[in-house]
Amino acid sequence: MIGRIAGRIEYRGDDHVLIDVRGVGYVVYCSDRTLAALPGAGEAVALWTDLLVREDLLQLFGFTTLVEKEWHRLLMSVQGVGAKASLAILGTLGPDGVSRAIALGDWNSVKAAKGIGPKTAQRVVNELKDKAPAVMAMGAARATVAASDAAEDVIETPVSISPAPQSNRSAQAEALSALGNLGYAPGEAAGAVAQAAGETPEADTAGLIRAALKLLAPKG
Fold first, then answer.
1. N- or C-end of the chain: fewer Cβ atoms within 10 A?
2. What is the pLDDT of residue 16?
3. Range 4-63 classified under CATH 2.40.50.140
4. Residue ranges of region Domain III (predicted)?
5. Residue ranges per domain, the chain?
6. Does the domain at residues 66-130 carry the CATH identifier 1.10.1670.10?
7. Alpha carbon distance 55, 79 (integer Å)
8. Per-residue model confidence (pLDDT) at position 142
């Protein structure tokens, strides 16, 4: 399995790039969004990759982040979603947008991708909704110092629960960062994370995100 390649871009196509790695050229297919973020021909590049193996075909797909690669892998697990459809969804929404749409059950955003109909979009949301917090946690693991400071404020802010233990503060910071990426206001996200941490102090980042989303879900 080829999980990552680093080399020099030889040329760019409409849906792929050719990357020279010590004299060997790899054709790597990417989403429109990823292609737009890559440097020009002759420049160095490194991509996380996923290899699709079929009886008559080998295709390499490239991603700028592990989160994008993980969403591609999960999207491909949904019936009716092939590599082309997965790249269309990621190209339209980006990995954060996919996380947001699936976590919030927003299948209309998924449907906005080229070639994705309403039934497929609904299937993507329904089948992957429980897996969204774990992927969001991957992205939030690189929480900034600001997010960590926000988590400190969550713990120090008076709330009607017992504060989470010190060892759980990193998970709180990451969960808070992930909820911020979903568009929740800092105040409501902080309150939900604090309550989730108080009720399940042993929860990891994905567990806190999952619990906080349930608390933030519209009632009734």
1. C
2. 95
3. yes
4. 167-220
5. 4-63, 66-130, 141-216
6. no
7. 20
8. 55
